Amino acid sequence: MTALTLSTSSAAALRADAVVVGVAKGPKGPVVAPGAEAVDEAFSGKLAATLETLGATGAEGEVTKLPAPSGVKAPVVLAVGLGDVPAKGDGYAAEALRKAAGAAARALAGSKKAAFALPAAEVADAEAVAQGALLGAYAYNAYRGNGDKNGNGVKEPLAEVALVGGKPRDKAFKAAAARAVALAEEVNRARDLINMPSNDLFPKSFATIVQQAAKEHGLKVEVLDEKALAKGGYGGIMGVGQGSANPPRLVKVAYTNPKAKKHLAFVGKGITYDSGGISLKPAGHNETMKCDMSGAAAVFAAVVAAAKLGVETNVTGWLALAENMPSGSATRPGDVLRMYSGKTVEVLNTDAEGRLVLADAITRASQENPDAIIDVATLTGAMVLALGHRHFGIMANDDDFRTAVHGIAEEVGEPSWPMPLPAELRRGMDSPVADIANMGDRMGGGLVAGLFLKEFVGDGITWAHLDIAGPAFHEGAPFGYTPKGGTGTGVRTLVRIAEQAAEGTIL
Ligand code: BES
Ligand code: MN
Ligand code: ZN
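That is the input. Now the predicted structure with zinc ion docked in place:
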């Protein structure tokens, strides 16, 4: 990953390929943001005027490169838009700083080192800038090495982000920088897994990757293979996985802290490829379905992040891993599965597979009686129809908890929206042969899926469900610190939930 260094020298004095400054949109034109004072001085105080001449406005995401004047060591000054100037007395919003730093880092792909002279006097500002830069610099080049030699136009990500203008000797500042690095590493770990093609990432190889990371970070892992799953009665996971040459796994990865007062269970949908099964997806709907394990990737990364940060909450991750394929051994529409909970499910549509693997994992997670279960899943196309590609939906069996999770997601910069679980939609899943069907009304399909999961949550356990089908995989042009492909959405929300559980502000 891109390295983060904390510099004591001024933005003008640092040797780098570029120096990044912030520019905001003021009522009378662009305004240079705090942190850029030394650079502005080298422009004789005319940086804002120069930018205006070049047509810059300070709009969010705007990137303007200009040659550095004498007095600035770096050859290039990159001004990045921060959006509207904050109201008097307010600092820049953390998300505005993350996005701007991300856009700048992205624009500097191919460079070795950039000095970031964005607002960093406050510890929280420095953390936001560092995190945004490290996330924005990300690119998935694992399958197209050799730089530009293969004619693929690939540039190496910016190698080093040097933060200037902060207090690198200050303890709180160092801690904030370390936190930014840990979170960015883990979001990027999730992105790497999501982007890895399904011919290399399948349940068994995913489980091996978890085992390796667990060794490194002192986590406890248990892997149930197809034999153990069959013997244990995991009818949901087996029913989805039985059609594939790559058999399913249930992976438990646990972080414990001796000071913990709370225990959280994170459950991730880990369909390493979703073809739809016998209810096969049509062409046009399956090209990006390697992303259907984004929930499991987020859960795994969040557990590692909790360990790296030493969060004082016990966190158990449950990864429900399977490949959903059509074959002679696949579950047929109309088949009835006996789930790990004992409930029977009539599978009307084999493409509604996520809820089947999650149901077993949620039942299993419930047996440990955690203080809360949070599942993360690319569960329904209906949620994408409802909320678009940037927001995930939050459902829960507890209104206060749903509100709290929404607030946390907002704080960390993961857009989301609360969604209801209307009881009347349960009837649509009534089955003439089984306890429940895996499909119900098409209208409100995301909520129907949520209601299905709710039936598998242990009595009295607080539960929230994040349907990340929209934002998990980004197909458009990169923006802010969001690259193309896997986004890692959910990771930062889960980690913050664990931190707040430790602080006693939730649950
Ligand atoms: N993995 C898909 C949901 C999905 C859609 C994720 C788009 C990411 C982007 C899920 O398994 C699925 O196929 N859901 C069906 C359920 C339906 C058959 C009840 C859907 O949403 O169409
Ligand atoms: Mn599906
Ligand atoms: Zn799926």
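Residues 271, 274, 292, 353-354 surround zinc ion (ligand 3) (CB under 6 Å).
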